[in-house]
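cron nightly-structures :: item 1 of 1
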Amino acid sequence: MKKKSLMQSLKQKKLILFTLGILTTFNLNTAKVNASSFGAEIFCTMRDGGNDHESSWEAAYTYIKKQKGGIFKVSPKQAASLITETVIRESDEFAYCIEYLDNLHPNRKLQQEIKNKEKKRKKLEKELEEANEDFSDESIDRYSY
């Protein structure tokens, strides 16, 4: 008798946890859809109103990050994808915004090249500073002979 009640208790706990898991997943997905939909609306309305890409993007990204919640943060790449998906999925509503989507996905190869050149520049500057430290003021005096 004791084993049956223990087994039933475990089954009930598992059922409760399973139900909570499903409800939590549903809520998180609903929040994600709502956040991306309104994030797209913010981005597109601002761009259509004449605002530049950066301010429109920052406003939409901030809203999506704030609304999505959850344990994991939304990366800029994910947020840009959410906005793009919403604009494409609801193309009747956001037809005016399609022309702005290319700015959400910058040329990653070009960004990597710029980052590599910046690393090389810093390395050369460091080497130049080290080389300059090797020379003393006396060795530069051209009249000392």
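cron nightly-structures :: done
Helices lie at 2-48, 53-68, 76-89, 108-134, 137-140.
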